[in-house]
Amino acid sequence: MSTRTDALAVAEDHERVLEALDIGRGRMAAPPPLRKVATQLGPEYRQTANGGDWDWFYGLARAEQARLRDGWMTASADALSPDEVDAIMPMAEWLDHTRRADKARALAVGRRYNTERYGGLEAAALDTDDRACPTCGMVDDVDVVGMLEISERLHVKHQTVSVWKLRGVLPEADWTVGGRPAWRWDRIDAWAAETGRLGYGPEMETF
Prior knowledge:
Elements: H1 4-20, E1 28-29, E2 34-39, E3 42-47, H2 55-58, H3 62-71, E4 73-74, H4 82-88, H5 91-109, E5 137-139, E6 142-145, H6 147-154, H7 158-166, E7 175-177, E8 180-184, H8 185-194
Parallel strand pairs: 1-4
Antiparallel strand pairs: 2-3, 5-6, 6-8, 7-8
Helix pairs in contact: 1-5, 6-7
């Protein structure tokens, strides 16, 4: 997977996962500015918000901070806080999706590549770990799906599938590739039929 078309498809794949949960581009609040305070060891810069909500952000390389500010954050009043995003998807997973989406877009347009912007991800040609569901598709005549594909085929929100997995309702995943679960569709299809979830739509969503 190395062509610009493939790279763009990978970027859109990751963006689609986040957009399905309404935590995509321009949904997270921009971090507060650091303020200069005097300490016994000299001046330090600290965040103005309480509770350390942005410690994860200020721990990133400056190049990556700029990437997130420019492409994923907003000053809008209805923006989500880190805690609100983390309640929908673990922050580390959200950050990984943004990195792989932006890495793929950089490769798609031939942009000069700086690994610090993408959490250290190398600029090598895309591999299976760069896909939102690395094993999805037909593999040895087996139809393999991730959580996004399950939500699409059962006509439910991605968040519903996430809750099913969190509560142990979904069958145990058949694979874990790149840290993400994947299942044989025939197992999910049979499970959905047995539990009355086959073909139900958003208006019927219950956990």
